Amino acid sequence: MVDLKELTQAVGELDEEKVTGILKEFLKTDPNEEDVQKVVNACQQGMGIVGELFEKNEYFVGDLIYAGELLNGAIDLLKPVLGSANSEKVGKIVLGTVSGDLHDIGKNIFKSMAEAAGFEVYDLGVDQPASAFIEKVKEVKAEIVGMSGVLTLSIESMKNVVDELKENGMRDSVKVIIGGNPVNKDVCEFVGADDFTINAASGVKICQQWVK
Amino acid sequence: MNTEELRKERIQLFKDAIRMEKKPKRIPYFGNLWSWKIIDAGYKLSEALFDYEIMQKVLRHVFENYKIDVLYETGWRNPVQVTSILGNEEYIINDDANSINIKDQCFMEAEEYDELIKNPKKFLWEKVVPRKNKLLREENNSGHFRKFLQKYGEFGEFMGKSSKIMQEEYGLPEFADPMAAFDHWGNGYELLFNILRGIKGLSIDIRRDPEKVSAAIEALDETFVKPRFERGKKLPKGSNKEYCVDMNPVMLGHTILSPKQFEKFYWPHLKRISDFAESHDKLVYIFAEGESSRFYEFFQEFPKGHFAIHTEQDDIFELKKRVPNIAVAGGMKSTLLGKGTPQECVDYAKKLIDELGSDGGYIFSENKMISYEQDCKAENLKAVSEFVSQYYL
């Protein structure tokens, strides 16, 4: 078994070479389900460190993008053995970039990090109308709706989704988080979301608190 | 005052604001109005972007309805008639949603750094240009290129006419020399960020192979930037009387960087501009996207009376306090313009001018690029621009 603390630290330090090295060694040991789960958890904890360092202004947007890439690489490496690990999902998130907006880098980082944290993420893609969010939430009975946008017009689109949730009598059964460049406290209030974030890592943290 | 006198006065207002040597006559208004103005004038985005006559009506609509001193974007931002002729599909216009998106651009692979570094001009011309413009990938592409030249000529003609209307009929100056657009915008790092590797690719490259990124910036700057500075050094000292500012760099790619990375990848270019502005007595207006407070220590090195920074998301009052050597621009919140009342907007405009403008070091403007319908209500912009044009400190 690999040194899990070392792996967590390497992910937190964004030391890609070290992370890859540890995971390759791990794969050679023909790991069982329990060990695979431990390794995934160690990576998740490493992402937690990335989020904390971002909040402390030690990491910046470029680091978050790189962290998303590193994490995707790690999960790709583990894929052949992941199938056998029956990890328990902590919650369901319906995620998408809202209508009128085609940006997806932030959304995709959030997705990687949320999945690493044990969420089942239903990614609708970009430029998604309110109806797409509503239908998916109904279909999968999600606990959380995550909306992303970069353009200022996305604010109105986010509000439309919340309004539609209300009209469908679903607003009280889901938590809503919005993320992206134009969001702040005022925007969050206007949209009627439960919380907002400008970085994926803290967004995941907020979601974790909701499903505790 | 005739339009020529008005134009000259407006140019002087901007220069005085940046110089910070005396209490200004009044605070100049930099109109940060982008695709919003098309919708405000009653047109669909594609109608105006594909018809220069309509775009000129849009410009007149702005000049006649809002008392601003500069309109920064005069129809050049989304030159879809020129780019689409070569099969470039980066602009995505949705007239139902009144939205325009620009695809994230990444026209170079991580493995191609050495090729770029070896000969940037050759790499851009032979690899990047055909990747960006699909019709140039065809074997017999000279017909497309001829059409492009024709469209480019029409675009130039439109820009010239618009400038004439703006200056001669309405007394608004050109903000910076339009013929020097690339001089304002381009540097090696921003080229990597905006066109070659994109936000994702460059974020990864900076971590995986920082020395290669540095070498690419150096090669691009040697080829495209340094010769321009050498030419600039031959120009007469002092700020050009025909324009509000002499240089107009746009900072976009700094948004992904830590201060340490900024020092390595970005600061050398800004330092070059800073030294040039000081030695040749030039005025520089930087538009800085996103939030930049982690770079204030660098900005503090700019020579006093030569720089203005238009901030998109910084706390502008804090920027003014911590970087007193520069003029600040922006501050009028698009969220307030879009959702507040005229009185709320005017009250906030007054606060901005009172708190930021007493030494002249403030240029009034919207914080964000006003692009979409909900970014601003016409009645709010009318009230604010009327107020700013009449308010004397």
- CATH class of the largest domain in chain A, please? Alpha Beta
Please give the alpha-carbon distance between the first and last residues of chain B. Answer: 21 Å
Number of strands of chain B: 9
Uncertain stretches of chain A: none
Give the spatial strand order of the biggest sheet of chain A. Answer: 2-1-3-4-5
Largest sheet of chain B: 7 strands, parallel
Secondary-structure element order of chain A, as H and E? Answer: HHHHEHEHEHEHEH
Summarize the amount of helix of chain A as a percent range.
55-70%
Notes on the structure:
The complex is a heterodimer of chains A (212) and B (393). Chain A has 212 residues and is an alpha/beta fold. Chain A has two domains: 4-82, Methyltransferase, Methionine Synthase (B12-binding Domains), Chain A, domain 1, CATH 1.10.1240; 91-210, Cobalamin-binding domain (Rossmann fold, 3-Layer(aba) Sandwich), CATH 3.40.50.280. In chain A, 58% of the residues lie in helices and 12% in strands. Chain A has helices at 4-12, 16-28, 33-55, 61-82, 105-116, 130-140, 153-167, 185-191, 200-210; strands spanning 91-97, 119-123, 144-148, 175-179, 195-197. Chain A has a five-stranded parallel β-sheet, sandwiched between helices. The longest helix of chain A is centred in the N-terminal third of the chain and has 23 residues, at 33-55. Chain A is globular and about 55 Å long. The model of chain A has no long low-confidence stretch (mean pLDDT 92). Chain B has 393 residues and is of the alpha/beta class. Chain B has a single domain (3-78, 172-390), classed as TIM Barrel. Chain B is 53% helix and 9% strand. Chain B has 19 helices and nine strands. Chain B has helices spanning 3-19, 36-40, 45-49, 52-65, 80-83, 113-118, 120-132, 142-170, 181-185, 188-196, 198-208, 210-233, 259-265, 267-280, 296-299, 316-322, 334-339, 342-356, 378-390, and strands at 29-31, 70-71, 91-94, 99-102, 250-251, 284-288, 307-311, 327-332, 362-366. Chain B has a seven-stranded parallel β-sheet. In chain B, strands 3-4 form a two-stranded antiparallel ribbon. In chain B, α11 packs across α12 (210-233). The relative contact order of chain B is 0.14. The model of chain B has no long low-confidence stretch (mean pLDDT 94). The interface between A and B is medium-sized, with 29 and 33 residues.
